Amino acid sequence: MATKTTAPTGASLSWQVTAPPAVDLVVSLPQPSLDCLSGTVTLAIRGGRLPQVQPKSLALLVDGPHDLKWEQTPTGWVGWRERPGLTQLRWRLPAHTQPYPVNWVVTLADLVLVQTWGLWNHDLSPNAQVLAERLILKHWLRSLPSTPDGAILASTTEPTERTLDWDQSLAALLPTVLAGYDGWQSLGLDPQQDFVGANLTSVDWRGSDWSGCDLRRTNWRGANLNDVDFSGADLRHSRWAGADLSGALLSDARLRGADFRRASLALVNLAGADLSQADLREANLSRANFTGANVVGARFGGNVGLDEAQIMTLRDRGALFVVES
User: Fold this and answer.
1) pTM (2 decimals)?
2) Rounded to whole angstroms, how far apart are CA atoms 297 and 315?
3) Given this structure, which CATH class describes domain 190-325?
4) Which terminus of the chain, N or C, has fewer Cβ atoms within 10 Å?
5) Nearest C-alpha neighbor of 147 from the set 48, 34, 292
6) What are the residue ranges spanned by the domains of the chain?
């Protein structure tokens, strides 16, 4: 309900970091409920990274969350899970290794707004709600110590408690969104990077331009995206169930592992896109353009708009046609 513009209040965040000599490193992360303007928000973590940590010096234990996925990158380990609510991670240091500073670093993509109270009406548009959530997460993140890799949420060299203050500019920006503003250009949000992992369910951004943006692990369920430009965007592991992308431009987009089940991709240009391991079962593919697209391991089946010649061509290029039981 609230549209007050009182300054954000501080909140205390605590975590536990322990490193017994040459045994385990444990990071316990909270799901803090924090005062925000005239309401309250609950935040959760669903991922993060361990910069400069190489496999030789740190082994990951398997007793963490079973759905936590890890990827080794040139700068260290990156971990994430599809669901929020990560509360503890545990790593094992080899017995011969001396403990050394290790940071758990998060970016906007690693934060989730789980719940809000007293901040907006239930009938706030999906567009405005998405923008409000991104603003809240971004301004909370600014209260943490920053590094080139992101913000340090936990560290073996940091104190276990710190008082965090909201960025004061949130008090001026959030009421603008709650009043119905549904653009992002004047809100300090960068579409190139500030929507990674965002829940974009039911948004209506017809004709918008997301070309070249980083939109990994975004959820576009039920969204209206007619004629949107996603060319060259990174949309790996994104979800599109029931979304309408009719006429959208997805040429050269990175769509590995994307889930398009029951989405409308009629008249969509997918030329040169990477659709490897994507799920397109029951999607409307009428007059979709797959010229030069990588469809190795992509799953099709029950599609409207594919004739036998197209099916044969896609199979020859590595696509899988699944018969539902």
Assistant:
1) 0.81
2) 10
3) mainly beta
4) C
5) 48
6) 11-170, 190-325
